[in-house]
Design goal:
heterodimer; A: 626 residues; alpha+beta; six-stranded antiparallel β-sheet; four-stranded antiparallel β-sheet; 17 helices; B: 139 residues
Chain lengths: 626, 139
């Protein structure tokens, strides 16, 4: 109870400090000295207030203080301590408090890290960021206060949705938010840079770090969510083109585009307006993501029950920010295109532009696929959904030119270039095509299309691999990231082609045979844990080669809230995953069993990690070479 | 006549414009082929012509209607006015149970039989898909 009050009042104090910061920094703006030390102190104190507030919410959770409404709704005394803590941000109110925490943390780090930057630019960034922070403070305090008081105090909480009680999902939101909120710094800083006419090489060098940081966190955050969906939801896939997944992918695409554009800006001070537009768009898409997920507008299988009043607040806030940023952009922006005169088609600049074109194309596909059903629902009564085939059909063919450009693009030089090493490229292409064809020959019906697509991916794989060895760690971050991307594409394509699935209803003691394989349902055992009972199924699977694998999927019956979940059992090896999930349909006779063999799942995760490793190296490298 | 800069800009703009128009056209075209309409059992009863395309049907799983064999799960979706029989072989989500909301995706055999290819999962026992809520009239 005390903790809740401390938390609530420090939130209000944090809001007051926002206003204070605005006033002090506005006063300081025209003084000639450096940034007033007080501003730093105030920003630090604001951060501390939010930290205190966040800690007191965690404390309420660990103490199972059910006088707090958020705790009551999302926790339970029998829940393990780890999930009591992760439950803090596993709900709407707590997750917004986390947003706020990261917002204030990032602006503080920004102030410390930007000492060499011009004073006015720093102060303006702080001001823009404070506008966002105030918006979020008001949002939390008005519509989703995590410290609401309940009386009489309930004896027991409602518990956290069991599918959220999972280690991957415990760290997924914080990491994703670091990525989302990192884009808010890029947003504020690019607006500040526009007003100060400071979009320059120095600015690019300095903001590139923030772009990289957000990009890395966003990449890993999306991956964690995907890993979670893979083993927890029991559908045996890792990406469903579900609206909630799409909204996290959209800012990733613009951020990736921005990452490449910043390089041009850094070298050649070109594309300034495009960089600013991308910065604005990225943050808007991050906000949209929060809005769409939290408002309940999205018709998604991921949607949790929630409250429409919040949606309206975020929508209004979003529009304010959009008008503000576009207004600033058109009022202050001066195009700076001295360099446009020496422009040649065959250059690194063009290849980055091509990259951006593809990113924008993928973005519009996903945006339309996600928003169109909402739009149609608003203007008519028609209810539709857009399935995975839509995205696959529109994205897969475009991957071919995209991959080919990734082969050639990075080899080009700035300003003017010609293609070198033609011989090795030709050899690599021939190897790729032959390799792909010999692998695919008997595997797929759509031979031509897949051969072309996979050959392109192999070509990228080989040529970046060669780069890695030949160039001796020149440009290593880009090479590793691109290598990761080529492996990613290869892994998902082969996974897609080679996966096999058996679904059947089996009784205990029965066997199910197909081809030369066999699934034997040996027995079930019951198990009791502190917050759930579980039924463990023992399965013996004999594959074509006669190898026997034992898999033990579980059905968990959680006591609070009363929800049944299936825990898939997955045997992961380097080359393939064996995935088995079972489900009780009715009574206890038949179990609905889904068995999948999924090749290269591990490779998918590794390649995404490689992608982010590339970003990480870029972050610590002093300067971008060639 | 014009400077190189102006020419270049013009070329750029045309290229961008053309590619925008083309991609939007492409996206909308395939959107038309790939959307899945949502219908309630009553809407299906009143259909004049059966759609060959994939549809989604939502409502409640009727009480005592689930029957299960080794390769099929059959049940009845009702919106308390009309019903439709669903024939399904595939994986069943956790929260699938009698007298709970459900959304099934698949093809209509006729006005009384629906061959489902997928049953959609939900994550939250309190959550009812908005379409289902509407289809059963907020019961």
């Amino acid at each position: 109870m005390l903790a809740s009050q401390i938390g609530y009042y420090s939130l209000i104090l944090g809001l007051l400090f926002s206003f204070l910061l605005c006033v002090v920094s506005a006063k300081d703006f025209n003084k000639n000295k450096g940034v007033n030390q007080n501003i730093l102190t105030l920003s630090f104190l604001q951060l501390m207030f939010v930290v205190v507030s966040f800690l007191s919410l965690i404390l309420s959770f660990t103490n199972s203080d059910f006088s707090n409404e958020t705790v009551f709704n999302n926790s339970h005394t029998t829940k393990p301590l780890f999930y009591k803590i992760s439950g803090t941000w596993g709900n709407h109110e707590g997750s917004l408090l986390l947003w706020l925490l990261v917002l204030t943390l990032f602006i503080f780090i920004f102030l410390i890290k930007s000492r060499e930057q011009p004073k006015k630019y720093r102060i303006l960034t702080l001001l823009f960021q404070q506008i966002i922070i105030i918006g979020f403070f008001l949002f939390v305090l008005m519509t989703s206060n995590p410290f609401n008081y309940l009386f009489p105090i309930p004896q027991e909480g409602l518990g956290l949705n069991p599918i959220l009680q999972d280690p991957a999902l415990a760290i997924h939101p914080p990491i994703l938010y670091l990525g989302y909120v990192g884009s808010s710094i890029i947003f504020s800083s690019s607006l500040a840079a526009v007003t100060q006419n400071y979009i320059s090489k120095e600015w690019a060098q300095h903001i590139k770090k923030w772009v990289l940081v957000s990009w890395i966190f966003l990449t890993i955050g999306i991956m964690l969510g995907s890993i979670w969906a893979y083993y927890e939801l029991g559908w045996g896939g890792f990406w469903f083109w579900d609206p909630v997944e799409n909204v996290s992918l959209m800012p990733w695409l613009t951020l990736t585009a921005l990452l490449h554009c910043i390089l041009i800006l850094e070298r050649r001070v070109a594309l300034t307006s495009w960089v600013v537009m991308l910065s604005i768009t990225t943050f808007m898409l991050s906000m949209c993501g929060t809005f769409l997920v939290r408002s309940g507008i999205l018709n998604s299988v991921h949607t949790f029950a929630n409250d429409p009043a919040r949606g309206i607040f975020i929508l209004v806030f979003l529009f304010v920010l959009i008008f503000l940023s576009l207004g600033i952009f058109f009022l202050f922006h001066k195009e700076n295109n001295k360099n446009l005169n020496n422009f040649f088609w065959l250059s690194k600049e063009t290849s980055v532009l091509v990259n951006n074109w593809f990113m924008m194309y993928f973005l519009s596909v996903i945006l339309i696929g996600t928003v169109y059903p909402i739009f149609l629902d608003v203007i008519s009564t028609e209810k539709i959904s857009v399935g995975p085939p839509f995205y696959q059909k529109l994205i897969a063919p475009f991957l071919v030119p995209f991959l080919l450009f990734m082969v050639f693009g990075p080899k080009l030089k700035w300003i003017k270039s010609k293609i070198e090493n033609k011989k090795s490229l030709i050899i690599f292409s021939i190897i790729s095509v032959i390799l792909t064809f010999s692998i695919l020959k008997n595997l797929t019906t759509d031979l031509l299309f897949y051969t072309v697509l996979i050959s392109a991916a192999f070509l990228l794989f080989f040529s970046t691999l060669k780069e890695l060895f030949v160039k001796k760690f020149n440009n290593i971050s880009q090479v590793i990231a691109h290598l990761g991307f080529s492996m990613f594409i290869l892994a998902i394509l082969f996974n897609n082609i080679l996966s096999s699935e058996i679904i059947s209803n089996i009784k205990v003691g029965e066997k199910y045979s197909y081809n030369k394989s066999e699934i034997f349902f040996e027995k079930i055992k019951e198990k009791k844990e502190s917050n759930y009972n579980s039924i463990v199924g023992y399965f013996k699977i004999t594959d074509e080669t006669g190898k026997i694998v034992q898999l033990k999927p579980e059905i968990r019956i959680y006591n609070q809230p009363r929800i049944i979940t299936s825990e898939a059992d997955i045997k992961t090896t380097f080359l393939e995953d064996k995935f088995l999930v079972m489900n009780l349909v009715k009574g206890d006779e038949y179990f609905n069993v889904r068995y999948q063999v999924k090749p290269f799942m591990l490779m998918i995760w590794i390649s995404v990690l490689l992608l982010s490793l590339g970003g990480l190296i870029g972050l610590f490298k002093k300067k971008y070479e060639k | 006549m014009y400077g190189k800069k102006v020419k270049l800009r013009f070329l750029f703009l045309t290229l961008i414009l053309i590619s925008i128009i083309l991609s939007i056209f492409l996206i909308l075209q395939s959107l038309k082929d790939n959307v899945i309409y949502f219908q309630s059992p009553s809407e299906i009863k009143s259909l004049i012509e059966l759609d060959k395309k994939k549809v989604r049907i939502g409502g409640m799983v009727k009480k005592q209607s689930i029957s299960i064999t080794s390769n099929e799960v059959n049940f009845v979706i009702t919106d308390f006015k009309n019903e439709i029989n669903v024939i399904y072989s595939g994986a069943v989500p956790n929260l699938f149970a009698e007298e709970k909301g459900v959304v099934a995706e698949g093809f209509l055999k006729d006005r009384n039989y629906f061959l489902a290819t997928k049953i959609l999962a939900k994550h939250d026992e309190n959550y009812m898909p908005p379409e289902v809520k509407e289809a059963i009239g907020d019961k």
